[in-house]
Amino acid sequence: MIKNTIILISLLFLTALSAHDQPFRNCLVVGISDGDTITCLMRGNKPIKVRLSEIDAPERNQPFGKKAKQQLSALIYKRWVSLKISGQDRYKRTLATVYYNGKNINLEMVKSGMAWAYQQYLRHSVYLEAQETAQVKRLGLWADPSPIPPYEWRKQERKYGF
């Protein structure tokens, strides 16, 4: 009896672990808020807000904000993507690396000069390398002689009430 109970508890524990350890989830992109935030429909048409991890795109009212949103839309709007979920941010958005056809979309945004590597939350140096290449090539926002990082832009908005 005790042996059966231990086996049952072990099986329940392993099932819980495997359910929690699903690194990729598929969803349909149904909305693009800006260059680093999307809305996806999960199974059962459950919508979730997803913040692309490790990058920071220009704000909507910031130079290149509309272009960043357009770039992200061109890459994944109305497409099925895979999310590698890494947590939640303070606004309860799902943090994830988004993949489409095997491509890391977060990284593609940085490569095209439509987002910064978000150094405060950076875990992979590939984003910094991509940013440096985009800067040298003066791609996207790097064509601006003095682009303002979004976190600085947000500070200015709060301070001056833009």
Question: What would you say this structure looks like, in words?
Answer:
The chain is of the alpha+beta class and 162 residues long. It has one domain (20-160): OB fold (Dihydrolipoamide Acetyltransferase, E2P) (Beta Barrel), CATH 2.40.50. Helix content is 38%, strand content 28%. The chain contains 5 helices and 8 strands. The chain has helices at 2-20, 65-76, 105-111, 126-137, 150-160, and strands at 24-34, 37-42, 46-52, 55-56, 80-88, 94-100, 103-104, 116-117. The strands form 2 sheets. A 5-stranded mixed β-barrel has the order 1-2-3-6-5. A hairpin with a 5-residue loop joins strand 5 (80-88) and strand 6. The longest helix has 19 residues, at 2-20. The termini are far apart. One of its GO terms (molecular function) is endonuclease activity. It holds the Pfam family SNase. InterPro entries: SNase_OB-fold_sf, Staphylococal_nuclease_OB-fold, Thermonucl_AS.
Give a short overview:
The chain is α+β, with helices and mostly antiparallel strands and 162 residues long. It is 38% helix and 28% strand. The chain contains five helices and eight strands, in the order H-E-E-E-E-H-E-E-E-H-E-H-H.
SSE diagram, text form:
Elements: H1 2-20, E1 24-34, E2 37-42, E3 46-52, E4 55-56, H2 65-76, E5 80-88, E6 94-100, E7 103-104, H3 105-111, E8 116-117, H4 126-137, H5 150-160
Parallel strand pairs: 3-6
Antiparallel strand pairs: 1-2, 1-5, 2-3, 4-8, 5-6, 6-7
Domain TNase-like: 29-144
Protein name: Nuclease
Signal peptide: 1-21
